[in-house]
Task: inverse folding
């Protein structure tokens, strides 16, 4: 992997490109989440037509089912899921934290129960490298402990030390040169611990750095504060990835602070729940006001869904639980997020990020009627 | 609607074309079923790329939800579902027979409960015409009583008489010239009653004729006997439609008897249940033997699914209940049916239907190992 920066304000928004063995993506980039090796309801061709550059898949889910060795045996995750573009796999740390019914974290690794069948599993940093090498993504992540919120300073410090020691073990265990290994910064909401974590990880020299342990229940301000303090500490010449984030507002704010990469289930999960993002705010498609609306979801949107279907039809499909509802809604929400990133990159490129940001919030205020 | 016959053996297979205000389709034609205004999981663009010519939608389902008046208000069913090709709506007779928890059939019409919420509804032949005119399909069907199997001769005769009287009332009630009205032949498994029904309907002069009340639990031989006796009685110059049928074997047999149109949920429903049609027989994708199979569903198939995905991936998606499983399986099964129809038409065109039929069964015998 290579990372080029085309444009950068000091401690401000950056424009760049991540080049991987499976192609290049412009940054800042939003990665749709393909949890189990599929972005729910969409084909890779759909993703390309939406302009998705890089896709994220979950190590935890794929390791439990169908298994990393199986995926390796049939040619790796790219081939398995028919996605020939850039691909990132996470380490499973977040899923163990959020999905496993029970878990015990030790220095050696983490012992946890599968959310699928309650079976017990043990994952080590070395094991996670082995799994991600079997999957074969272009960018792989170190195993981290996703620190819960709230947590005592003492707990957060111990957890951060563990994440550091695991990062070192991951680096040592990694064997495939064509894969880029990113480290994950932990440290909870403690600025000094985050700083120590960044410094020690940067010393180890990774291909990229991620902020982890955000969007875990903390107030939005706390998240933004951590990001604002941590992002400038990261090396300029490496991609900066804010994991599991976020809302459209988060993306605009964090890109403004110099973040390069994002992933979040928000657009895809909300789509399946009938919550749709539009230029005039969020729409709950099940609401009866949309029953006879012969207009697109968003009249300013040029996505496939908005070009060809009315709110009335989308509501009908959603109420009838038709499979096509999930697909059309996902197309629209992902288009909204990916189009926002395109506009953001254009603004950064033109040196008009601040104007873009002001307009972005103005538009929201106008439509929310305040 | 116009119907052209290009080729016809006496009482044998026919090759033709149905021309509607929304385009022409070659016959014999298999119509994918879009129950609630969507062929589950697929877009109209998907259907076109599969070569689907005409789509069927269900009056019963659309009338109950979201309602025919709503669909009319937003521009009719074509526009609502974004399908600009030929479209047929059935009359609801079959759904009232198969889905409604309770029903009472009277001369005036049928009183039944909705399977959605148990609410009571009353449908008359005139009402069904009104609904289908609101939906605006190119071909619409008379309200019939789908006679159950088994049933006494007395019951079948009364039921057939009612279907005849309802057909006349439908014809009288119909107002939109651009829609073609087809009548439905009933008469159970009694050859003489079917004959009487055909004769009386033909006297009334409809744009096309359907065989109804088949595939309702009768033995396959009974169905084939009824079809073999009834199809030749229908006017040569009108399309002949066998409703709700059938398996690949049924399509080959009935086309051989001069049937022009078919519809069935078999390929789409089986797809969602993981039962897939291949040139070497049916596959249950959940079976563990497919777990690591890095081969397409059907090595002789050139559909999107077979071109890009392995059985291992399709099994993974199906076991994980991923939405994409239903879509990829549906694409494959529909391609199988529509490709069978293309091969059938080519054989009829070349005058080699009999050879095609022999080869079709030979292939099956080889693969079933007998």
Result:
């Amino acid at each position: 992997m290579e990372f080029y920066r085309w444009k950068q304000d000091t401690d401000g928004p950056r424009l760049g490109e991540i080049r991987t063995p499976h192609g290049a993506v412009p940054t800042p980039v939003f990665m749709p989440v393909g949890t189990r090796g599929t972005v729910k309801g969409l084909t890779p061709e759909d993703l390309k037509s939406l302009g998705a550059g890089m896709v994220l898949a979950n190590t935890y889910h794929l390791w439990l089912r169908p298994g990393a060795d199986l995926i390796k045996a049939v040619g790796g995750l790219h081939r398995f899921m028919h996605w020939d573009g850039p691909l990132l796999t996470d380490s499973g740390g977040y899923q163990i934290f959020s999905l496993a019914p029970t878990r015990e974290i030790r220095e050696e690794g983490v012992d946890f129960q599968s959310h699928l069948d309650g079976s017990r599993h043990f994952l080590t940093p070395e094991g996670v490298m082995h799994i991600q090498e079997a999957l074969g993504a272009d960018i792989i992540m170190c195993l981290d402990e996703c620190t819960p919120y709230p947590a005592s300073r003492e707990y957060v410090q111990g957890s951060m030390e563990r994440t550091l020691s695991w990062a070192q073990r991951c680096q040592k265990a990694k064997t495939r040169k064509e894969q880029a290994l990113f480290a994950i910064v932990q440290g909870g909401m403690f600025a000094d611990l985050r700083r120590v974590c960044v410094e020690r990880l940067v010393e180890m020299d990774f291909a990229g750095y991620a902020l982890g342990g955000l969007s875990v229940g903390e107030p939005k301000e706390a998240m933004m504060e951590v990001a604002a303090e941590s992002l400038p500490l990261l090396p300029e010449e490496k991609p900066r990835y804010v994991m599991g984030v976020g809302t459209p507002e988060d993306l605009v704010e964090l890109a403004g602070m110099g973040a390069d990469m994002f992933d979040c289930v928000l657009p895809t999960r909300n789509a399946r729940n009938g919550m749709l993002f539009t230029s005039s705010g969020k729409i709950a498609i099940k609401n009866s006001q949309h029953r006879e609306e012969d207009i697109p979801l968003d009249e300013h949107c040029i996505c496939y869904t908005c070009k060809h279907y009315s709110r009335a039809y989308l509501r009908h499909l959603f109420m009838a639980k038709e499979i096509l509802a999930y697909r059309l809604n996902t197309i629209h929400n992902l288009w909204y997020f990916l189009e926002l990133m395109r506009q953001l990159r254009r603004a950064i490129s033109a040196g008009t990020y601040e104007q873009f940001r002001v307009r972005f919030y103005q538009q929201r205020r106008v439509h929310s009627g305040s």
